[in-house]
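[Automated response] Your request has been received and processed.

Submitted sequence:
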Amino acid sequence: MALPAMAALKTFGPFTRLGLIAAVLTVAADQASKLWLLFGFELPSRGTVHIMPFLDFVMVWNTGISYGLFPQEGTAGQWVLFAIKLAAVVLLLVWLFRAGTRLTALGLGLIVGGALGNAIDRVAYGAVADFVLFYFATATYRFNWYVFNLADVAIVAGVAGVLYESLMTPDAAKAP
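Generated structure:
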């Protein structure tokens, strides 16, 4: 019985633990922020909360994927999006288990954690809870950026790290 467990451990790369820790911390921070904003701060009942001259908290329920693309109001569509996200997480975990550098493992862990954080929302609420709104405003003009959450920040940071590593490091072209 110990042999299959040992074989499974050998499939982990040298930085798998770092990536898994990043994923767990990302899910925890994302879900804690959402729970506090939804039920402690009660953001849905407050409407727009001005934080800074360029930052508001607003409650937006994203029924689609990134940037609200492919919105799905029905249960079947939501489950299809959940299944796609779950498949992506599995593929990213396989990549994480083989990651050969700290930055790749950290980036993949952030992406996985962000994806899981948003997937938890989709199961719990039927949509992803987004709440951060950056904007630029003058007396006659206002530009709103997309509304997002901490999981989205982790995903973007993780993608940036993986892209940086794959494009800018000297051995990137030689990697298998």
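Summary generated for your ticket: The mean pLDDT is 87. Residues 13-174 form one domain.
If you did not submit this request, please reply to this message.
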